[in-house]
């Protein structure tokens, strides 16, 4: 369900974002990232778990817009370096997540999901208030 949803939304969302603006689609992606762990942990049946993975697939709704926004905000001569630096920073930032998630899991298996959601919502707020689309 996750991959099917991602496939269905990726190209249409990219086309709409190109015409209407990228920021709302990036925010939608970040919101889906924040709510996916909650949707998984709140699933009480197989049907709800499928719905959770639809939410997981919606994480791709703003991926083309996010990548384009990163490139748009960089000087043309530095775009490749900016993209590389972005992915380096992101990878370094998320590297400890599995270890921390494992420690939180030992306390209670649902805690990592709630912590991920809170961090995701903080990310939504930071992005929405600090990034301006030019």
Molecular structure report:
This protein has 134 residues and is mostly helical. 80% of the residues lie in helices and 0% in strands. The protein has seven helices and no strands. The protein has helices at 2-20, 23-41, 46-57, 63-72, 79-94, 97-107, 111-130. α1 runs parallel beside α3, α2 packs across α4 (63-72) and α4 (63-72) crosses α5. The protein starts with a helix and ends with a helix.
Summarize the helices and strands and which ones pair or pack:
Elements: H1 2-20, H2 23-41, H3 46-57, H4 63-72, H5 79-94, H6 97-107, H7 111-130
Helix content class: over 70%
Question: Could you name the ranges where pLDDT drops below 50 across 5 or more consecutive residues?
Answer: none
Average pLDDT confidence is 93
Largest sheet: none
Radius of gyration: 16 Å
What is the number of helices? 7
Question: Could you tell me the number of beta strands?
Answer: 0
β-sheet strand percentage: under 5%
Terminal CA distance? 35 Å
- Principal-axis shape equals globular
SSE order in H/E notation? HHHHHHH
Structural class: mainly alpha
How would you describe this structure in keywords?
134 residues, mainly alpha
In summary, what is this structure?
By secondary structure, the protein is an all-alpha fold. The chain has seven helices and no strands. The longest helix is centred in the last third of the chain and has 20 residues, at 111-130.
């Amino acid at each position: 369900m996750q991959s099917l949803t991602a496939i269905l939304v990726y190209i249409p969302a990219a086309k709409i974002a190109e015409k209407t603006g990228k920021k709302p689609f990036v925010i939608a992606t970040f919101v889906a990232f924040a709510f996916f762990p909650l949707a998984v942990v709140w699933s009480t049946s197989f049907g709800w778990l499928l719905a959770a993975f639809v939410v997981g697939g919606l994480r791709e709704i703003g991926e083309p817009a996010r990548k384009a926004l990163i490139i748009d905000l960089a000087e043309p001569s530095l775009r490749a370096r900016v993209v590389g630096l972005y992915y380096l920073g992101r990878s370094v930032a998320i590297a400890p997540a599995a270890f921390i998630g494992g420690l939180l899991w030992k306390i209670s298996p649902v805690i990592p999901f709630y912590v991920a959601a809170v961090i995701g919502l903080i990310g939504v707020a930071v992005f929405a208030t600090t990034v301006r689309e030019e």
